[in-house]
Design brief:
Layout lengths: L2 E5 L4 H12 L3 E6 L2 H10 L4 E4 L7 H8 L7 E4 L15 H27 L5 E5 L6 H5 L10 H21 L5 E6 L16 H13 L8 E3 L3 E2 L3
Parallel strand pairs: 1-2, 1-4, 2-3, 4-5, 5-6, 6-7
Antiparallel strand pairs: 7-8
This protein binds NADP nicotinamide-adenine-dinucleotide phosphate (NAP).
The site of NADP nicotinamide-adenine-dinucleotide phosphate has 32 residues, from helix 1 and helix 4.
């Protein structure tokens, strides 16, 4: 049986991914932050395995490693993410950058480190980092985000996550573990941008289709809207 680990699985894209991977027969390993999120998730997905932990806490990596001690994972989806609406130098604060860096970059690192043994148990396993078009330095240098209202902290943390994706791809290649970055589209979720137009269900369906056809290559950076993105 195939298995997938999804962080931030209680709402938005993470929930849609959990529903669709479950419908496709995957065994679910889900990370959420609260007991009430776990209770709600289990009402809908009673066979899921759920770990309650904030991905930014010091104990997370060790807890995850213990939780997965005899598990094999085909896919990890680093979906948990945060953003703060502060798009100007005046409105942004160091604390926003710290928070987003902790969630969108260090949380991803901790997840991969905590789950590495489980990933190594499967051949050609896959780490999907849910990135953003706003993490592309090339696109930002071409003014793609100018005037968009997207915050300093979100853009900087997703660019850092993209570099982490490339570091991991280099490091894990010899273990036959692929690492990719995916922009999921402009989603109609709590985090929605002003130009959001895609349901999380459609985004999850597109990502599942890509996983099923096994075409994702390590170092891919792909928008589920528009195709390949420049790093
Ligand atoms: N929405 C978009 O248009 C868009 C575009 C590009 C990329 N993305 C990316 O897509 C991913 C999913 O976003 P979404 O739109 O579904 O947003 P969302 O509805 O706000 O969901 C965010 C999820 O992340 C979880 N989370 C946040 N911080 C966490 C932490 N420290 N530890 C554990 N879980 C944490 C949240 O849990 P709680 O419920 O406990 O807060 C929630 O489940 C994010 O990485 C986001 O950056 C979204």
């Amino acid at each position: 049986m195939n298995s997938v680990l999804i962080t931030g699985a209680n709402r938005g894209l993470g929930l849609a991914l959990a529903q669709q991977f479950s419908a496709c027969g995957y065994k679910l390993y889900l990370v959420v932050r609260t007991e009430s999120s776990k209770i709600d998730l289990l009402k809908e997905l009673p066979d899921a395995n759920v770990l309650i932990c904030d991905v930014t806490t010091n104990k997370y990596e060790v807890l995850l490693n213990e939780w997965l001690s005899d598990i094999s994972l085909d896919v990890i989806i680093n979906n948990a993410g945060s953003g703060t609406k502060a798009p100007t130098l005046e409105s942004t604060k160091s604390e926003f950058l710290r928070k987003e860096f902790e969630t969108n970059c260090i949380g991803v690192l901790a997840t991969v480190k905590g789950a590495l043994v489980a990933l190594k148990r499967k051949h050609n396993s896959l780490v999907i980092n849910i990135s953003s078009r706003r993490g592309s330095l090339t696109m930002q240098s071409e003014l793609a985000a100018k005037g968009s209202g997207c915050s300093y902290s979100y853009r900087i943390s997703k660019a850092a996550q993209n570099m982490l994706t490339l570091c991991l791809a280099d490091d894990l290649e010899d273990l036959n573990i692929r690492v990719v970055a995916i922009h999921p589209g402009r989603l109609l979720t709590k985090m929605a941008s002003t130009d959001a137009d895609m349901t999380p269900e459609l985004s999850a369906k597109k990502l599942l289709a890509m996983v099923k056809c096994n075409k994702l290559k390590t170092r891919d950076y792909i928008s589920l809207d528009t195709g390949e993105l420049p790093w």
